[in-house]
Amino acid sequence: MWTSLVCVVLVTSPGGASLPLVVNTWPFKEAAAAAWEALQSGGSVLDAVERGCRRCELDQCDGSVGFGGSPDETGETSLDALIINGDTMEVGAVADLRRVKNAIGVARAVMERTHHTLLVGESASAFAEDMGFPAEDLTTNKSKGLYTRWLQAGCQPNYRQNVVPDPATSCGPYRPGPGRTPHRRPPPTDLRAHDTIGVIAISGKGQVAAGTSTNGANHKIPGRVGDSPIAGAGAYADSSAGAAAATGDGDIMMRFLPSFLAVELMRGGAEPSAACTAAVARTKRHYPEFFGAVICANTTGHYGAACNKLPGFPKFSYMVVSAETRGPSLHTVDCF
Ligand code: GLY
User: Fold this and answer.
1) Where does 10-138+193-334 sit in CATH, by number?
2) For FRET with 265, which of 111, 160, 168, 170 sits at 20 to 30 Å CA-CA?
3) Cα 4 from Cα 142, distance rounded (Å)
4) Distance of CA 250 from the midpoint of ligand 1 (Å)
5) What pTM, to 2 d.p., does this model score?
6) Using a 6 Å CB cutoff, which residues line ligand 1?
7) What are the tens digits of pLDDT across the range 64-115?
């Protein structure tokens, strides 16, 4: 679990400024180290983002990134990933990727080997295989166990509504129910069901890149795509302003493009912490009980984060690496 990856350095204040810089969501120390190592060995900011996300995919960070996590209603794991070049505004993304483990690598291939931005589902898998990524089963004993327990619990938690049989008590198959009750999303029952590795990398020259990787939401409806592969939602980067990345309930957060909003606020002069806070506040205004956090960094090497305070989620942790930190350092921010 992610708690075993926590670095010993704990900093509670927002920070900066020093370039080059790597910032990533959650206490995924090995991801931060991998991204930093890419920069130190002469790699680009895109290399740093890819290596950081890839490290988490291999480590199955928190169970919420990579293979073997978040089985859908049929028990299958599928992956979402995104990479953005803030110099050129090239973007590559994959969503609902099946049977291929290296989601961030496929996202980069979409960016570099096509004129498209986002490929999805079986067609994304076919593209990945054409590009040389091996087809593999993403199921593990852990994901099988999660799926079995979900079936035994009457398919709870469940993302369907206004269908019969009642999805709050029964498994499917479902069909449309009579009428439509006003939607009120229940408070999250499993806060860890929506984590994402989001990585921001900024070079010494101020080149900015960002990316994400996740296996999405536990027990999602097959075909569901969250915020992580959506530019402006899961992450955004622009070398004339900065970058941001989001983690949390993507079904809600993608409606507000929090990463795009935060970058635009930084472009207007907002400090990264203030930009992140404003992005979280925008979503909170409509969904006070949403689970989520945003990390932000600007081109002068300042960084910050913000999160929505919930029972069981009073603070959010993220990793920072710069010449000043001398290795990955763990930062925390109090949620509001
Ligand atoms: N933020 C990850 C997801 O909801 O898919």
Assistant:
1) 3.60.20.30
2) 111
3) 18
4) 4
5) 0.94
6) 194, 196, 214, 216-217, 226-228, 247-250
7) 999 999 999 999 999 999 999 999 999 999 999 999 999 999 999 999 999 9
